[in-house]
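Fold it.
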Amino acid sequence: MTRAVTLVELIITIAIAAILAIPAALLLTQTMGASVQSRNTMAALSLARAELERLDALNAFFNTVLNVTCATPTSVGTPLTTTMPNYGGSPYDVIRIVSCQTGNCCNVATNSQGVKRIVVTVRRNGTTATVCRLITYRTKHVNLGG
């Protein structure tokens, strides 16, 4: 004997399926958004690391890329900001700020001491929201004790 499905049973089944599908759809939407955000963050982090590795390869405290703005050779110097749009052909802008943390970062004498702070910030083109920021330091003739 076959049993037919009534309209009430069909409506209840559809309602239960809809109730179960809504959280699943929201979860899928959140997962996709987080995946895109994660991809953007990893791309920005890779660009920031590439810039820091490029600076590290220079291996020179007074390389022109790492200069601060110096009024005189004995001044501490003011921070120098460099913006590199579309860094490496990417849809990201890299902003590098070099500042003198301590000591004298303008005097090239071998006995002068200095610590430069290098901040690399990555943003999507056309936005002001920071995706990634890395900070490192460069030293010259700094006594670390004794």
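The CA atoms of residues 11 and 85 lie 57 Å apart.
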